[in-house]
């Protein structure tokens, strides 16, 4: 966020009220796709033709190399110039083009509906999903994924161009606004469903605070990672990572099962709380990094563009 803009000015510029997600603010990110790089970093195994070059040799649009003609080679690929120059028959090889769908899993569950400074974590997740979606469209990939909360979930099979992007945005706004329902998922359940949806050779983004993440979810990510690139984006808020330094009174804390209260002004408790949160984040990062997942932490206290620009150009 520009230092000349106050929080209220930035919210007005972006078209958001910090707690809800609307189509206007998601469309706003269309011109800022350069802060992301979705270039594949592993071999692509998709069977569908597309815009990325696989390591396998085949008929495609991209010339790869010339070698001596072998029995069984297609005579239409003979390189007559090299053949005439060397006196031996040579044939052209092409690097086969493959498709690489992008799947985005966006967590809009109850624990994501929190923010102490700029945005709710759920709104920040929607903004990051919007950036990814526009970048996917720009590269010509297909976009799919899953948007979920404890009340509702929407599964999206890969589609290309603006239709895929707008369909994902409508899912984000619908699930974020849904307050009642019986079709919701936990993070583990969403990962299980995404595992069935993802095609080998895809790029997968997981946008969540990982507060409901268990060994079950780790098992699903391990399975997804075997044939895909996975980027995990933990969305956090500063108040979750450290208690306020100048504070007093009691605060409720929970581990998801039991709730207790801590004295905010107690320096010893503040230190223990901060240390515990750092340990949990470090453990999560270590577990996912060991699987080969990329780690992209995002805070809800700062515009996502500012954070990604630092990571890209810093």
Please describe what this structure looks like.
With 314 residues, the protein is of the alpha/beta class. It folds into two domains: 7-43 and 102-313, Rossmann fold, CATH 3.40.50.410; 52-98, no CATH class. The chain is built from ten helices and eleven strands. Strands 3, 4, 5, 6, 7, 10 and 11 form a seven-stranded mixed beta sheet that branches. It has a two-stranded antiparallel sheet with strand order 1-2. It has a two-stranded antiparallel ribbon with strand order 8-9. A hairpin with a 4-residue loop joins strand 8 (250-254) and strand 9. Helix 4 (121-139) runs antiparallel to helix 5 and helix 6 (187-197) runs parallel beside helix 7.
**How would you spell out the order of helices and strands?**
HHEHEEHEEHHEHEHEEHEEH
Any idea what the CATH architecture of the largest domain is?
Answer: 3-Layer(aba) Sandwich
Structural category is alpha/beta
Q: How large is the radius of gyration?
A: 24 Å
How many runs of DSSP E, i.e. beta strands? Answer: 11
Terminal Cα span: 15 Å
Largest sheet: 7 strands, mixed
Shape: elongated
Strand content: 15-25%
CATH superfamily of the largest domain: von Willebrand factor, type A domain
Q: Briefly note the CATH topology name of the largest domain.
A: Rossmann fold
How many domain units?
A: 2
What percent of the residues sit in helical stretches (DSSP H or I)?
A: 25-40%
For the record, the CATH class of the largest domain is Alpha Beta
Number of helices: 10
Question: Which runs of at least 5 residues are low in confidence (pLDDT < 50)?
Answer: 43-60
Mean pLDDT figure: 84
